Amino acid sequence: HPSNHYPAKVPKWNLNYIKKSFINEDYSKKNKNFKIYIDRDQDKILQNNNLEKYKNHRILINNQEIKKFLLNLDFKIIKPENLNLKDQVKLFNNAKIIVSLYGAAMYMINFCRKNTKIIEIKPYKSGNDFLRISNLNGLVHSQIKLKPVVKTNNNQQGLLMCPISTLEKYL
């Protein structure tokens, strides 16, 4: 694992090595105007009003509302797990704006070009792992820190509600 499972401690040389290993010149010639929303697609878990049961998961309760809002702004809704690594690298390398819930898929911001705008939605007590990766890569990183709707036992997790008006301020 490139950061020994501690993204906040990943060395810059490691990020550079990974980036250089996967990005080729063809990627640089592509259009870099993609606006991306990383969809964790966990809405189905909450379909039975079982908030208490899933309080220790990281889920955006209003994910469908956020997707609808962002689609109206010409965002692409992606599920990285449905793409091969090469396509993920290309997509992130050509992104202009990325909106995502705090999580493993955000490691891919390492492939973004300088000044790409990153909007990270996260539990307010979770770490600044991806902010550090953004800073090392010259990305413009904002964090929307939210208090979980249901009290959780883990600072990294929580059922989160991100008001559209709040998200809109960061776009």
- Stretches with pLDDT under 50, minimum 5 residues: none
Oligomer: single chain
Shape: globular
What is the CA-CA span between the terminal residues? Answer: 32 Å
Helix content: 25-40%
Mean pLDDT: 86
Strand content: 15-25%
Descriptive report:
It is a single chain. The chain has 171 residues and is α/β, with parallel strands linked by helices. The chain has six helices and seven strands, in the order ααββαβαββαββα. It has helices at residues 12-22, 25-28, 63-71, 85-93, 129-137, 164-170; strands spanning 34-38, 58-60, 76-78, 95-101, 117-123, 140-146, 158-160. The strands form two sheets. A five-stranded parallel beta sheet has the order 3-1-4-5-6, sandwiched between helices. The longest helix is centred in the N-terminal third of the chain and has 11 residues, at 12-22.
Write the layout of secondary structure elements.
Blueprint: H1 12-22, H2 25-28, E1 34-38, E2 58-60, H3 63-71, E3 76-78, H4 85-93, E4 95-101, E5 117-123, H5 129-137, E6 140-146, E7 158-160, H6 164-170
Parallel strand pairs: 1-3, 1-4, 2-7, 4-5, 5-6
